[in-house]
Specification:
The protein has about 260 residues and is mainly alpha-helical. It has helices at about 5-25, 35-45, 50-65, 70-75, 75-85, 90-105, 115-120, 125-135, 145-155, 165-175, 180-195, 215-235, 245-255.
Length: about 260
């Protein structure tokens, strides 16, 4: 896949943005939260876990723990039990308790609305900080680069980078700052609903005509469908019957 350069790349990015804006006008963060602390907690829990599962866990967790001090005081074992189904519950529990302790010690228990302050918290990296800033405070300080954003940015010909920080840096040059938060949501929604990791649904993709990866993935999809149809046809065909042998042939076969 050959990447466009300069003005061509910016025009390509603009077309992608406008199409995504029309495809997903209601795109939003799919983690449930009512305040910045809840979103910060939910984002930490979402590592290697689906938003759906996190929302199930936080439904009860947010009723039980309401302040940073609550998370800082809760025993490790008890918090582990509360969040166990999100996976990696031991490390997540440690991160949540340490993060909460930092909030209490450094910011009087309030979630700060600045990148440098957020990333000073234990267990909080740039991606998590971008989620909180963009969705809880409506501050476009960067672009969230998760697995969906990384995959789609590469497939759409916006970057060849592999490192999330480098991908973010390149995307920030192509996407207007006012769209940074929405752009992440658009790519995440498209990745979850159409441009899947294993079998992208290219035949129903609203970006197909401008996607530089369309021919490659459409061919893979077509080949997979052909193989599937062939296998189904083969299984549905009646087994060939062997012709009956005469008595002399049966004796000869035994000999």
């Amino acid at each position: 896949m050959k990447l466009r350069k300069g003005q061509q790349l910016k025009e390509h990015a603009s077309e992608i943005i406008e199409r995504l804006r029309k495809l997903y006008p209601d795109a939003h963060c799919e983690l449930n939260f009512t305040n910045p602390l809840e979103l910060l907690v939910a984002t930490i829990l979402s590592a290697q876990c689906t938003d759906k599962r996190v929302n199930i866990v936080t439904r009860d967790l947010f009723k039980k723990l309401k302040t940073a001090a609550d998370y800082a005081r809760i025993p490790q074992e008890e918090l582990e039990a509360d969040i166990k189904s999100t996976g990696f519950f031991r490390s997540k529990s440690k991160s949540l308790r340490s993060m909460a302790q930092d909030l209490v010690n450094k910011f009087h228990g309030k979630v700060p609305a600045a990148m440098e302050a957020l990333t000073s918290l234990a267990g909080v990296g740039r991606k998590t900080a971008n989620v909180v800033l963009g969705n809880a405070f409506h501050i476009n300080d960067g672009i969230v680069v998760d697995t969906h954003v990384r995959r789609l940015a590469q497939r759409l010909g916006l970057t060849r980078q592999e490192d999330p920080d480098k991908i973010e840096s390149e995307l920030m040059k192509l996407v207007p700052q006012n769209d940074w938060t929405d752009f992440s949501h658009w790519l995440i929604w498209h990745g979850r609903r159409c441009c899947y990791a294993q079998k992208p649904d290219c035949s129903h993709c609203g970006l197909a005509t401008i996607c530089p990866s369309f021919d490659e993935y459409a061919k893979l999809s077509a080949d997979a469908e052909t193989k599937k149809a062939s296998a189904v046809k083969k299984r549905s065909m009646p087994a060939k019957r062997q012709p009956k042998q005469t008595g002399e042939k049966r004796i000869a076969a035994k000999l």
